[in-house]
Amino acid sequence: MSDAELVQRLLESVGIKPSHVLSDDVARLEVHQNHVVGAHLLPGLEVDTTERDDGIEAHLRLLPGARFERPIHLCFGMLPEKGLQHIVLEIDVEEDASAQVLAHCTFPNAVEVKHRMDARIRIAPGANYSYYERHVHGPGGGVEVIPHATVELGEGARFKTEFDLIKGRVGEMDIAYDAVGQAHSVLEMLARVSGSGTDKIRIHEKARLAGEAARAVLTTTIALRDDARAEVFNTIIADAPRARGHVDCKEIVQGRAVAKAVPIVEVNDPTAHVTHEAAIGSVDSKQLQTLLSRGLTEDEAVDLIIEGMLS
Amino acid sequence: MTLLEVRDLAIQLDDKQVLGGVSADFKQGRVYAIVGPNGAGKSTLANVIMGLPGYTNFQGDILYRGESLKGLAVDERARKGVTLAWQEPARFEGLSVHKFVTAGAKTTNGRDLAAAALRQVGLEPARYLNRAVDKTLSGGERKRIELASILAIEPALVLMDEPDSGIDVEALDQMFEAIHRLKEKGSTVILITHSRTVLRQAEHAYLLCDGRVIDEGPVNRIGQYFENRCALCDHTNEPGPQEAL
Ligand SMILES: Nc1ncnc2c1ncn2[C@@H]1O[C@H](COP(=O)(O)OP(=O)(O)OP(=O)(O)O)[C@@H](O)[C@H]1O
Ligand SMILES: [Mg+2]
């Protein structure tokens, strides 16, 4: 298959019209297994890639003050049923740069695929970076996803990340993000995952509020069915004056699924304030009865409630 | 034609006899009201008819189109045409008004249907379709969206538990129009209410007190309850709130 065909197939597998992305005003990078199959750069973005046996190394630099009209598109994936993709990603968002990245990770045919991402993200003072990662997995559940990232937020920097794995089976997943925020930085981490079958989900997000008035919100929403299992350990440590944080974990469990949530908050300055909230349970009875009274079956009603919750 | 027949219905909840032998007849294409003081058992009656959990263990029978609803689950009753507009509607995080309103509707063009239903309850579709049915909606907005979702499924029988609570004057008129449109399409509407204005929308009314029907008849006559309270029985209930005139 040619590189152009691979790009088409990857984009199609995540439900994106290639014409949407393959346009001159969209910066993008597509990686199939260990091979860069497509790229388009715009002023303000520099990308350096090295192909390795088991994946690639990529260094993205968003230059000082850079602005992009449309989100930058990244797509990592594998069409074959088996294999390993290890992405080593370094992202530097330089001073006052502002960018939105839409990343898709797609393994539509996975039977035995391992996707590992080791990312190091540095967001310089005054920069604003948002990273939305959406996973599309096949129905077989043969994927192991291991995204690990460290994030450094400079003074006044903003970082928002959203992780979505809602379509297809999760397989096994182990998310670990570790962030440190300097003064007046703002961090938002959101994960939405829907597990079924024998999926195993582990999420460990950690934020350290190191600078004065740094803020962080960690939000995890998980829906589990069948024999799926999830463990969420989200942590905020506030070391600085007037730091603010909130950890929020919501899990809906159906069938024989098992969920565990351990929010950890630590406050080392009396003027800091960190809260947490964790709720695990079945779908709300009144919501369910309402939809049943409109004629939806129980499965349809639960699907709709979960779809809303994960939206 | 009788659509729903409640026969000598009795139910205990937590050892309390909440309904003590209620009988009532509801004909197709007509609007009914059920009035009575707080705690009389009005919502309980609606919940038993809908078959909600906790309300399925009763004596007597409920016949719908001549067949007993006993043993049918809520969704089975709903697919036969029975639905309930809740006194305190549920809130759904993240679920759009568009999806909520069309849930259960037989349609392929959900957006148009949802927009039409919202217009009928006086809500501008462009402002509401993409909002979530969550706690950011006001109480009155939520009630109107509840009614819109009922209109969208065109039920044969709808139980409306205090449809006017939290509704402003203008929206109330729109709600009445919507109720009459339902009737014109052949639906049977049962309005549970503490309001004389809502009662007047009905053609026939039941006065419930202490879990029993103590009177039934034309709304004018049953409406006297609002002046006399239910002086007919020596009930232990507190009378319902009097409507401000
Ligand atoms: N699960 C329950 N267990 C025990 N008692 C109950 C239960 N549910 C309702 N009741 C009681 O049954 C009676 C009837 O309640 P219901 O909600 O049907 O009254 P209502 O006529 O709808 O009143 P309102 O006008 O206040 O809405 C009340 O006294 C109430 O306290
Ligand atoms: Mg009531």
What does this structure look like?
- The complex is a heterodimer of chains A (311) and B (245).
- By secondary structure, chain A is mainly beta.
- Chain A has one domain.
- Chain A contains four helices and 20 strands.
- A ten-stranded mixed beta sheet of chain A has the order 2-1-5-7-9-11-13-15-17-20, with helices on one face. In chain A, strands 3, 4, 6, 8, 10, 12, 14, 16, 18 and 19 form a ten-stranded mixed beta sheet that branches.
- In chain A, a hairpin with a 2-residue loop joins strand 1 and strand 2.
- The longest helix of chain A is centred in the C-terminal third of the chain and has 13 residues.
- The radius of gyration of chain A is 20 Å and the shape is globular.
- Chain A starts with a helix and ends with a helix.
- By secondary structure, chain B is an alpha/beta fold.
- In chain B, 32% of the residues lie in helices and 26% in strands.
- In chain B, strands 6-7-8-3-9-10 form a six-stranded mixed beta sheet, sandwiched between helices. Chain B has a four-stranded antiparallel beta sheet with strand order 2-1-4-5, covered by helices on one side.
- In chain B, helix 4 packs across helix 6.
- The radius of gyration of chain B is 18 Å and the shape is globular.
- The termini of chain B are far apart.
- The C terminus of chain B is likely disordered.
- At the A-B interface, helix 3 and helix 4 of A face helix 2 of B.
- The complex binds adenosine-5'-triphosphate (ATP) and magnesium ion.
